[in-house]
Amino acid sequence: MDLIILKQKFKQKSNFLKIFNHNTQAKHEFQRLEFLGDRVLALVISDEVYKRFSSFNEGRLAIIFSYLTATTTLSKIAKNIKLDLFIKKKKFNNISDKVLSDFIEAILGSLYLDSGIEIVKSLIIALWNEEISKNKNLKRDAKSILQEWTQAQGLGLPVYKVMKKKGLDHQPTFEIELKVKNFNSILGNGKSLQI
Predict the structure, then answer these.
(1) Comparing C-alpha atoms, which of 139, 158, 133 is closest to residue 147?
(2) pTM above 0.85?
(3) Residues taking part in catalysis
(4) For the segment 157-176, what is each residue's pLDDT rounded down to a tens digit?
(5) 166 forms bridges with which residues in the sheet?
(6) DSSP result, 96-139
């Protein structure tokens, strides 16, 4: 699916195009649509994984849901439909993963208001289908496990601090300090700040 097909799902094409306006009033409405789209996406994705994976417990469903609704996944979906290129043509600057994620959510919110839940649901399932199928066996990441443990022990959230960055910009290596209340800090090395 591409952006042209997505645009055709709107009854009123102006409801699609208004997302890409720059003025102050448009920004306010964009944020409202982004808020709504986030909730529509959450409902549709949670319903879909609940139905598809009937043998999975709540924890496994939550892991898949978190991945499918994460900024990086939304950005990947946006790039798949060439939303990043469309946004560049509209003269937007700083097109980060967060920006692409926000635009996807605003589009979903606007489509929901324009065409209803069934249309937006079919679009979400079409766009996310491959990600849902490929990632059904996701495991919990170490960072989430540590955060849950520290909070359960009353220690608050762990604190991460970049101590050093080495190497070329396209192949950096990071040294990170991890500090948990009441414990000695530890150092770790990796090629990404993602844990």
Answers:
(1) 158
(2) no
(3) 38, 105
(4) 888 888 888 888 777 888 88
(5) 173
(6) -HHHHHHHHHHHHHHHHHHH-HHHHHHHHHHHHHHHHHHTTT--
